[in-house]
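Hello support,

Our group uses your service weekly, and this is the first time we've seen a run hang past the timeout. The protein is ATP synthase YMF19-like N-terminal domain-containing protein. I'm not sure whether the cause is the sequence or the server load. Input pasted verbatim:
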Amino acid sequence: MKRVFFIVFIQSAIFSSKSLGAEEGMPQLNPEFWFSQTFWLILVFTILYLIIWKRILPKITDNLENRKKTISTDLEEAQNLKKLAEERYKEYKKLINDAKN
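Update from on-call engineer: The timeout came from a worker crash unrelated to the input. Re-ran successfully.
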């Protein structure tokens, strides 16, 4: 049984390879198709450019602006908290020195 399947497989591989074969050469390199390829290339990349420019780029710029705002407010808050901590530390040191004397 296995032998029959093997023989059928080999025969189908031999006889179908020529009937299913394509023309030789690459159609991309055939100058006959260059105009249509150039047209579709320009069309597809123009559409992609417009989609990116109108839809994706505004979202990215908004996210970058929000990130800048968040970072600047966080830095201001950190500086204010640092000043407050330094003042409290000075008060603490003063209380410790007063308690020792």
